[in-house]
From TrEMBL, chain B:
<dbReference type="InterPro" id="IPR027417">
    <property type="entry name" value="P-loop_NTPase"/>
</dbReference>
<dbReference type="GO" id="GO:0016887">
    <property type="term" value="F:ATP hydrolysis activity"/>
</dbReference>
<dbReference type="InterPro" id="IPR050107">
    <property type="entry name" value="ABC_carbohydrate_import_ATPase"/>
</dbReference>
<keyword id="KW-0677">Repeat</keyword>
<dbReference type="GO" id="GO:0005886">
    <property type="term" value="C:plasma membrane"/>
</dbReference>
<dbReference type="GO" id="GO:0005524">
    <property type="term" value="F:ATP binding"/>
</dbReference>
<dbReference type="InterPro" id="IPR003439">
    <property type="entry name" value="ABC_transporter-like_ATP-bd"/>
</dbReference>
<feature type="domain" description="ABC transporter">
    <location>
        <begin position="246"/>
        <end position="493"/>
    </location>
</feature>
<keyword id="KW-1278">Translocase</keyword>
<dbReference type="InterPro" id="IPR003593">
    <property type="entry name" value="AAA+_ATPase"/>
</dbReference>
<dbReference type="InterPro" id="IPR017871">
    <property type="entry name" value="ABC_transporter-like_CS"/>
</dbReference>
<keyword id="KW-0813">Transport</keyword>
<dbReference type="Pfam" id="PF00005">
    <property type="entry name" value="ABC_tran"/>
</dbReference>
<dbReference type="GO" id="GO:0015749">
    <property type="term" value="P:monosaccharide transmembrane transport"/>
</dbReference>
<keyword id="KW-0762">Sugar transport</keyword>
<keyword id="KW-0547">Nucleotide-binding</keyword>
<keyword id="KW-1003">Cell membrane</keyword>
């Protein structure tokens, strides 16, 4: 009895670790440069975080099923380029954006099908599609950025607008978060995602269509990558063929910092949001306190390592 | 040679061993018995230095000792063979045998492979295992791997070997071989501490029995002075009455009819039927193809030929999802890897097969989930302090009840039970039997795979016996004996 209550207490503490980490980093940065806490800068941080966070939300689902998705950055680039290409060619912007989102979901579904029907390990399947999607982007754009995207208000708002003083990308991130949190927590789909990652064989034997769950999860991640692509394309007012490189690593880092287990079945999306914030605050804060950009990478890596060590050793 | 006195151990204030004693004589086989959670494993862990003791003394060969690590215990001559064997499948048998104690050319780290292989061959032959020591360990059966582990223990001059549920995964023939080896070593003065739930085995091989209950010492008996009932009573603290409930149910119409079911190389041309309220046992040696048949029946592995009828209609079952839709439920043999999601709570595990009833438009109803848990907890007597407890923190018997719960929630008309009482203590076993009986009375057709013949004889209305992928007998359970079943299971004349 007493051992189990101790265990659940430990579980709560475990969940608090990302929050404590974020708090600690913010405190240190603020002491070194109080400007960090200005409203303007904080909104700036949130806006910078939003793209990575949206991708990382999808990555959370994938990792909860015990998988990984390395192709998110390439999906971002390809959907961004195709959407921009359509807009530059005169397609209705809203239709172009919708088609971009659908394309993202389809590219993700291809990952899911390779993994569930083709029985390819997620790491290998998405490593391959990462390369293929990136190659398709380069073919499509001929290696050049696509600009001249017109002045559709909806499209411009997506990356640059404000909603009651809050940047629209931040609003998009928070709304996505709310919906995805609800899905994981309250729906049968969310429960099945955890089940597949917790024990795939037992899930299958319980009548869960595990293959279908995986396809949905990768499609969702593709969709969210496309959403991030629209925000990025709008912010830059152009689509870059090299956009999104290494984004998969930041997304995975956010998920891991948030305490979600890479072996699947355990974790939560709140942690991912905090994890993305930790990375964003570090990026912004290290700049503010004048750490060289070379050294910033070292610090980010150390923070990730430290977080994982805490998780492993259950130091707290 | 070994005396443990007044051993006490607590984990964060929770006392798991209180004033427990144990002693062992040279050349003795001493059984340690008790229900799951009685403290057997903890006691062995205290002995071998995995857990430090909080109180009491351990004397080894007349001297007081405290081992700090299992390595220390092993060096002193006390070796443990765990339930999960420590065999590395892709190393050779000889490499496994010498793992960590390799013979090398001086201190160079260059292995004397030939010498180790010759020696491995001799040592294994001495234990009755005649094999090529250069072969991969994966080619050995579980029973043979166990012999390799024993040889490994002996090579470090073990005088006491602790065996934890050594026969759980063995066929009857392998058990015989293991017992032969154990008896031979006993003659040479090696003592064994034998942890098992299988009463028949303990009476066949042990000299004395020490019984623990709820972390306390209940008593020690000579096998010759005691009997089955007394030991059970010591373990559960009360008389259990009959081991099996009286079967009184009406057998109705045929529910399931299987014709010519085949999946090479596991089983071929399997035909049988099961009726309402009937318990049909599938008996046979391990590897006879019993589990494979029910896996195919349930849509988990594809059969290559055959027809399945449910209530007279031909059905196509391609996935477990289809099977559940047709009223099938399947309690798997391996709880941990196929039955439960260990990180999930008790409640979440029960919900797993019942999403349809617990949700509307894809939204889970927390209220309905809790109601199902409450109903199952009441019906099966699951002992858990909270529905939100991780299922892995429950004892084996309670975990099995959780698996049963998740399937009972689906109101199956055909229930498949694969080794339903494996690793479950005596008290919980009896509860599981009464649940089976209750379900049969309600008209559920039950297929039970069991390797425990007393269980087969105690519960089944009919016994199907398999031998190497074929059905060799279909016997009414009237005046049936273990010998008759074994006759067909080992390939004696067929009678279908």
């Amino acid at each position: 009895m007493s051992s189990t209550t101790a265990k659940s207490k430990q579980g709560v503490l475990q969940k608090l670790v990302p929050f404590l980490g974020l708090f600690l980093i913010i405190t240190i940065i603020t002491i070194l440069n109080p400007d960090f806490l200005s409203v303007n800068n904080l909104l700036n941080v949130l806006r910078q975080v939003s793209i990575n966070a949206i991708i990382a939300f999808g990555m959370t689902f994938v990792i909860l099923t015990g998988g990984i998705d390395l192709s998110v950055g390439s999906i971002l680039a390809l959907t961004g380029a195709v959407t921009a290409g359509m807009m530059a060619g005169g397609t209705d912007p809203i239709l172009a954006m919708l088609l971009g989102l659908i394309l993202g979901a389809l590219l993700g579904a291809v990952n899911g099908i390779l993994i569930s029907k083709g029985n390819v390990a997620p790491f290998i399947a998405t490593l391959a599609t990462m390369t293929i999607y990136r190659g398709l982007t380069l073919v499509y754009t001929e290696g050049r950025p696509i600009s001249g995207l017109g002045d559709s208000l909806t499209f411009q708002m997506l990356g640059k607008g404000y909603f009651f003083g809050i940047p629209v990308p931040v609003v998009t991130m928070l709304v996505s978060f709310g919906i995805l949190y609800f899905i994981l927590k309250k729906t049968t789909f969310g429960r099945r995602v955890y089940a597949v990652g917790g024990n795939e064989e037992a899930s299958k034997l319980s009548g869960i269509k595990t293959g279908r769950i995986k396809i949905y999860v990768y499609a969702l991640t593709g969709f969210l990558s496309a959403l991030a692509a629209l925000i990025l394309t709008s912010r830059l007012n152009s689509a870059q063929p090299t956009a999104g490189q290494m984004f998969e690593l930041d997304a995975i880092a956010a998920v891991v910092l948030g305490g979600t287990s890479l072996t699947g079945g355990r974790g939560w999306i709140v942690g991912t949001l905090i994890g993305a914030l930790i990375i964003g605050v570090l990026n912004n804060g290290l700049n503010l306190i004048g750490v060289s950009s070379f050294f910033q990478q070292v610090v980010k890596g150390l923070v990730i390592l430290f977080a994982v060590l805490i998780d492993r050793k259950k130091l707290i | 040679m070994l005396q443990m006195k007044a051993i006490t151990k607590a984990f964060s204030g929770n006392v798991v061993l209180r004033d427990v004693q144990f002693d062992l004589e040279p050349g003795e086989i001493h059984a340690l018995m008790g229900e799951n959670g009685a403290g057997k494993s903890t006691m062995m862990k205290v002995l071998t230095g995995i857990h430090p003791k909080d109180g009491g003394t351990i004397h080894w060969k007349g001297k007081e000792v405290t081992f700090k690590t299992p390595q220390e215990a092993e060096e002193a001559g006390i070796a443990v063979i765990h339930q999960e064997l420590n065999i590395l499948p892709y190393l050779s048998i000889a490499e496994n045998l010498f793992l960590g104690k390799e013979e090398t050319l001086g201190k160079t780290g260059i292995l004397k492979t030939k010498k180790m292989e010759t020696e491995a061959k001799e040592r294994l032959a001495a234990l009755g295992l005649h094999i090529d020591p250069a072969a991969e360990a994966a080619t050995l059966s579980v029973g043979q791997q166990q012999i390799v582990e024993i040889a490994r223990a002996l090579s470090s001059n073990a005088e006491v070997i602790i065996m934890d549920e050594p026969t759980a995964a063995l066929t009857d023939r392998e058990i015989e071989q293991l017992f032969k080896t154990v008896r031979a070593l006993k003659e040479q003065g090696v003592a064994f501490i034998y942890i098992s739930h299988r009463m028949e085995e303990i009476f066949a091989i042990c000299d004395r029995i020490t019984v623990l209950r709820d972390g306390e010492w209940v008593g020690v008996k000579r096998i010759s002075d005691t009997n089955f009932d007394e030991i059970v009573q010591m373990m559960v603290g009360r008389a259990l009455g009959d081991r099996f409930p009286t079967r009184t149910c009406e057998i109705g119409d045929t529910v399931l009819e299987v014709t010519g079911l085949t999946r090479e190389p596991y089983f071929r041309d399997i035909s049988f039927d099961v009726k309402q309220g009937e318990i049909v046992a599938l008996a046979g040696l391990m590897g006879a193809g019993r589990t494979e048949i029910v896996q195919s029946l349930f849509g988990y592995r594809k059969a290559s030929a055959g027809e399945v009828k449910i209530n007279g209609k031909v059905v196509k079952i391609r996935t477990p999802y289809d099977a559940i839709g047709h009223g099938l439920a399947y309690v798997t043999e391996d709880r941990k890897s196929e039955g439960l999601i260990l990180d999930f709570s008790v409640e979440e595990n029960i919900s797993l097969t019942n999403f349809k009833d617990l949700s509307a438009n894809g939204l889970m109803s927390a209220k309905k989930e809790r109601a199902l848990f409450d109903r199952m907890k009441e019906r099966l007597g699951i002992r858990t302090s909270s529905p939100e407890l991780p299922v892995k923190s429950l004892s084996g018997g309670n975990q099995q009840k959780v698996v049963l719960s998740k399937w009972l929630g689906t109101n199956p008309s055909i229930l498949i039970l694969d080794e339903p009482t494996r690793g479950v203590d005596v008290g919980a076993k009896k509860e599981i039997y009464s649940i089976m009986n209750e379900l049969a009375e309600k008209g559920v057709a039950i297929i039970m795979i069991s390797s425990e013949l007393p269980e087969v004889l105690g519960m089944a209305d009919r016994v199907l016996v398999m031998h190497e992928g074929k059905l060799t007998a279909n016997l009414d359970n009237q005046d049936l004996t273990q010998e008759q079943i074994m006759h067909y299971a080992t390939g004696g004349g067929a009678r279908v």
